[in-house]
Design a protein that fits this description.
This protein has helices at 13-26, 39-46, 50-62, 101-111, 131-144, 147-150, 160-171, 187-199, 214-222, 240-247, 274-287, 344-355, 360-371, 374-400, 426-435, 466-485, and strands at residues 66-69, 73-76, 182-185, 205-210, 226-233, 237-238, 255-260, 290-294, 319-324, 336-339, 406-407, 415-419, 441-442, 455-459. The chain has 486 residues and is of the alpha/beta class. Helix 5 (131-144) crosses helix 13 (360-371) and helix 8 (187-199) crosses helix 12 (344-355). The structure holds pyridoxal-5'-phosphate (PLP).
Amino acid sequence: MSEFEYTSAAAPIYTRLADELCLLIGNGQLRPGERLPSVRRLSRQKKVSATTAIAALRSLETRGLVEARPQSGYFVRARGAQSEEPAMTRPPAAAKTVGVDNLMVRMIDAALNPDIAPLGTAAPDPAWFPVRRLQRIIASTVRRHPELLVTCCPYYAGLDTLRHQVARHYAALGCVVAQDEVVITNGCTEALNLALNAVAAPGDTIAIESPCYYGFLQIIEKRGLKALEIATHPRDGLSVDALQNALVSRAGRSVKACLVSPNFSNPMGATMPEGEKRRLVALCEQHGIALIEDDVYADLQHNGPRPLSAKAFDRSGNVMLCSSFTKTLAPGARVGWIFGGRYAEDIRLRKFALSGATPAILQEALAEMLRTGGYERHMLKLRRGYAAQVARMAAAVSEYFPAGTRITQPAGGFVIWLELPGKIDTLALFEKAIVEGVNFAPGPLFSASGRYGNYLRLNCGRMWTPGIERALMRLGQLVKAELAAA
Ligand SMILES: Cc1ncc(COP(=O)(O)O)c(C=O)c1O
């Protein structure tokens, strides 16, 4: 077994208690300077022994989240300069052809090696997912609907049961779409390809966040499109003002669509405020360009209500929303969806031309998970888990990385984006880290213009194990060594 693999034995009670407290600190319910419950209170409230409560508090101290004050107890530590967020980005004004293939392949190859710490791809730990329940539901679906295995699939837009459940899920979130508008896809990636196919031809330009998910860049590259990077804030996401300016510039004239993740973007974890989402929808409509919304992380808020999708503000059908179950319920199922808006009819036909259909058995089983409330129950746990993991990784980075490292503070999802101090080249760092058994995503992977040389993204989706902690410590040492050598 790899040292990065999680087993329940790796999470004793004190660790779980520390995670709970970590979450309260991470989401601001326990603020800097505030006193934590005493050992006696913790052990009474949580029904654990005093030894367990002490171990949990000490573990938070080791992670740098709290400090012990003599005779007074434990207090949340003030966030130091290390935890500051990176600044608003300043991408170039011209559209670029894209080329991120090689680097992406190297990172994905490293992700397949069990001896390398899996901090590179944004892949959640398999241990988060309700495997037994999925097994049962899939087995019973096969029993109840054997015809789905042996009928040549006429459902190229997807099974009505899943289309209905997905539309219902969004309606409950204030985003009303007709079931007819929904097309089930092979993951979010196929949905994104369909959306771009519907509105852009080779040579056209797509406006994107900078930095953005490298998958966007890859699709843009493979379709012969160009990318126009738009300034993006680490907390508030794509700058609508910057997009507005870009659209009236020379480079903006060939923009056919804006591709954006308004909720918990990758790699920054940023979320656009509601008013900005509304403005974005209106701006795209006004300029006659399509808005393609990647919603794949949107159900993963760490706290409070789920933020609205930009699609919720769409009155004209100009927004296409793309998403999947990859980050939430069943990464291996490769089931996603697109709401095609005014392009829905065209997208249905394109889906048929592109891949015929999506495997029906899995669609039916996932529809059942939604229908029976299994999805929501699972999500309650998953959100808490991801939130604790993000807080924990950020705390470890503050502890092990050099002073001056800036870290994003995402309110959802499970990636963090780091700006390293000095002139550290994360491409060179990547080569050294792989040799040392640590994977991460170097910053230039997220830019069409090779920006973000001193940035990197960390996957916080893995469960905490001593191996993960050692990997972070080692990466911090490598960064410090690079800094000293510069
Ligand atoms: C923003 C974003 N969109 C889409 C995907 C891929 O989704 P899927 O695996 O469902 O194709 C990812 C995966 O990392 C992602 O980060």
